[in-house]
Amino acid sequence: MGVFLLLPFFLIRFGLLSRLSQDAVKRAAYFAPLLETERAAYWIYQISNAAIVLYLLFLSVKRIPTWIFATGLTMYAVGLLLLAVSVVNFAAPVENGFHKNGLYRLSRNPMYVAYFVFFIGCALLTRSLFLFVLVLLFQISAHWIIRSEERWCVQQYGKAYLQYMAKVRRYL
């Protein structure tokens, strides 16, 4: 059953993005240069990401208690919606080199926010504490990846990106 939870995620993250822009696929796959202290976070990020996907394949949705199911379903759906909108925003061409359109006006990292909401929804739907822990590891390590991306953006875009950072929060 977990595979059915993942299908919409992959269709949006990879299918929709590649349909909208091959350039955006390349940009989304790019990792900014990491400091030595960030390399461990990169590997935790990659391993936890793979573990989440693989583990979800073996889980099934549990409908009892109803409030956990309803909360999980809501977070799952909101995560997919946020992901779809952030993918569309990310795929749109920009003049200055970084995105400030759509959800990027509210969050500098709406795709990462979408991943977190989506995967927490999956953890609630499957009532898996282990999946919840994997998602937390993923998100904590993603924070270090995001910091390296932001450092790279400041180097690339200078004052314009610093002004953007001053106006828009990292997450929400």
Describe the structure concisely for a colleague.
The chain is 73% helix and 0% strand.
Describe the structure.
It is a single chain. The chain has 172 residues and is an all-alpha fold. The chain has a single domain, classed as Four Helix Bundle (Hemerythrin (Met), subunit A) (Up-down Bundle). The protein is built from seven helices and no strands. The protein has helices at residues 2-20, 22-29, 39-56, 66-91, 110-126, 129-157, 159-167. Helix 1 packs across helix 2 (22-29), helix 3 packs across helix 6 (129-157) and helix 6 crosses helix 7 (159-167). The radius of gyration is 16 Å and the shape is globular. The two termini are 31 Å apart.
Give the helix/strand layout.
Elements: H1 2-20, H2 22-29, H3 39-56, H4 66-91, H5 110-126, H6 129-157, H7 159-167
Query: How far apart, in Å, are the first and last alpha carbons?
Result: 31 Å
And the CATH topology?
Four Helix Bundle (Hemerythrin (Met), subunit A)
Following the backbone from N to C, one meets helices and strands in this order, namely HHHHHHH
Query: How many structurally independent domains?
Result: 1
Specify the CATH architecture: Up-down Bundle
Kindly state the percentage of residues in helix.
Answer: over 70%
Our count of helices gives: 7
Biggest pleated-sheet summary: none
Oligomeric assembly: single chain
Total count of strands: 0
Low-confidence blocks of residues: none
